Amino acid sequence: MSPPTSFRSLYASSSTRTPISPQIRIIPLLNSCKRPYGLSFSTSSSLPSSSSNLFFSSSRKQSLSIKVQALAAETEQPKWWEKKAGPNMIDITSTEQFLNALKDAGDRLVIVDFYGTWCGSCRAMFPKLCKTAEEHPEILFLKINFDENKSLCKSLNVKVLPYFHLYRGSDGQVDSFSCSLAKFKKLRDAIERHNVGISSDHSSSVSEQIEDSTSSL
Predict the structure, then answer these.
(1) Three-class secondary structure of residue 48 per DSSP
(2) What is this structure's pTM?
(3) How would CATH label the architecture of 89-191?
(4) Which residues does 48 contact at the CB level (< 8 Å), separation at least 6?
(5) Which residues does the annotation mark as catalytic?
């Protein structure tokens, strides 16, 4: 059966036209275009993780540096028992040094502080003791570490800490007592009692007493 007359011209014209080129396959093309971008995105997506690691690494180094600096500053500072109020406060490290200090003091009042680095009461009272030493430059303050001078402390019958001995010239030992921050007035009262009436006669009676006690150990 032949086509109707109305379609013959259309059919004839269509048959003479250049055929349409085959359909371009767009999907593979898009996929091929996406691959490089996909790789690029994958690479860029890994950057935040790398940057984050660098950031935290830098933060850790900075924190470690701060801690090291703080530790160095702490080690450079003297311990609480190493601080001195002035030239009238001396650390005693041996019996010989102690005896020489008493001899050289003449008729000055000498206050001996027996302490322990582990003693909480000693540490709490120490700032006030330093202040008292600054207020009384005429008094000689001797500090004796109990753990480093056990034989000397034993010879002086020191059994509790903190403990104080007071010496003055030929009078020898004039007072001794245990004291704490709450009872610091006891030391102030002792200073008022014994820091008067300079003796004109100086002897080595105190040294002889200590030497006798240490030689018997």
Answers:
(1) helix
(2) 0.60
(3) 3-Layer(aba) Sandwich (3.40)
(4) none
(5) 119, 122
